[in-house]
Amino acid sequence: MAPPLLNLDGIKLTFGGTPLLDGAALSASAGEKIALVGRNGSGKSTLLKIAAGMIEPQDGEVFRQPSATVRYLPQMPDMDGFATVRAYLEAGLGPADDPHRATYLMEHLGLTGEERPSDLSGGEARRAALARVMAPEPDILLLDEPTNHLDLSVIEWLEEELARTSSAVILISHDRRFLERVTRATVWLDRGQTRRLDKGFAHFEEWRDRVLEEEEREQHKLGRQIVREEHWLRYGVTARRKRNMRRLGELQTMRQRFRSHRGAEGTATMVASDAAESGKLVIEAKGIDKSFGDLTVVKGFSTRIQRGDRVGLVGPNGAGKTTLLKMLTGELAPDAGTVRLGVNLEIATLDQKREAVDPAETLAHYLTDGRGENLLVNGEQRHVVSYMKDFLFKPEQARTPVRELSGGERARLLLARVLARPANLLVLDEPTNDLDMETLELLQELVAGFAGTVILVSHDRDFLDRTVTSVIAPEGSGRWIEYAGGYSDMLAQRGGSKLEDRKARSKAEAAEVSPRAEQAAPKGPAKKLSFKQKFALDSLPKKIEAVTASIARLENNIADPAFYERDPVSFQKTIAALDKERTTLAALEEEWLELEMLREEMEG
After folding, report:
1. Residue 297 and residue 433 share a domain
2. Which residue has the higher pLDDT, 277 or 167?
3. What's the structural domain count of the chain?
4. What are 424-444's pLDDT values in tens digits?
5. HEC string of 486-547?
6. CATH no. for residue 469?
7. Buried/exposed code over 241-278 (b: 16+ C-beta within 10 A; e: otherwise)
């Protein structure tokens, strides 16, 4: 194995209280691609800064090859003092570095170099910072959340660029698909210590679960051993004759190990507050247009979103995702066309702009809107501290100003506020930013199992694949198309092309075929089910099974002869729910039968 370019060993660092890093280790050899993973607040960014030489540990060894060059990408790049992006990039180049490399990176990252840093959006600033650290082609690249605020096309390009580079790469990211495609080793920072797996992130979660299960077994065995030793000291024959000091000392050591063991970090509890059920039709858009000056953002878009749908919006930054989202939810009026919202809608929105929160406001005040120390969650009064614990906040943080939170903690705080409000339509704009893996998994389960309707904007391909039932994507010139399934299903329907390739091809097609000529072209009979029909045919049996199980539970409840006498109101509600479920089952079975007959007709 090649000697390491970077080696950290026995790193210790404490900011008062429990050590943040307690014997952590990290090493990288030439060309290695390493994922650094762990919970929010576990010290990942701090360890990366120690590797970059920006922070000195209180103990431990830090070794860097004297000739090795290191470049570090922070979460918040500092561009103060630079007139243009090009000046910012060139300041990061050494005398022997190729300036054309900076130009190449700017072109692929959608920058001209003439932009003023003060005018950059979050995504543009992130792209400029990426170009600066990658331009010198350093021996070691340390990347802290490189995909934050990047659109999908840039993320996919970055994957390929990092796969090609000869630099050793250590990166922190919440984007699971990105980590799976880039990394070949994984370092897990947990409770101040590190464990290394010489496999990429795709193997991490299974390995992590095995490690935690083994740790739990070992702790249980230690507890049983302490009980046996205590019994021997009290009742053993040797103990009655003469105290065995060696065994007493071993018992004290075991007790200390047992007490000092830091269990695995807790898991957030996410439950969305239910509102009354919305109507079957949630949103209907017909031929909506939106332009800003000469820029056409949306042109002739139509869709029907029904109760229970989970719709994802994807596309490059600036394509108009947020604009389309605001039109669909009635926040922004279209220039042409109509948007009709369904009845009984209760909308809860997670805004992408985290800075909208007053940084001086305390966590408790923000969650309760300043209305005392309680809030209403799912119809129940909850003390704000108790509710905060569900999202992994400590009781003493109730009076902490928002400005002192990390990016991940702020993301959890915003989710806590949104999910406390009764809703049957969740609107989530970039909900996965800054969340750790475990919290991301919980959010994914919440979205996938939400009884109402969800519309979300995301660049996280894995999250989209696991949650949404359809994807709306831009095709160029203001055209948007809805595809059944997740992000991977969308790519399959497009022939596997990436967003940037599809955008370029759609412009060429638009130049060759006018919309009028396209509409005039005769369409032959369908030879097979559409993707949406096939998706429905495959998913309906699961829905039918779930509704059938629900009916069985409700019938079992009303079969209790004492139910009506005990609670007549609940009995009537159960009867109404049973009638509704039976109606739903009949509709699902009829839809499945029609699709099945259509399939047999086409194939037979």
Report:
1. yes
2. 167
3. 5
4. 898 988 888 777 777 787 788
5. CHHHHHHHCCCCCHHHHHHHHHHHHHHCCHHHHHHCCCCCCCCCCHHHHHHHHHHHHHHHHH
6. 3.40.50.300
7. eeeeeeeeeebeebeeeeeeeeeebeebebebbebeeb
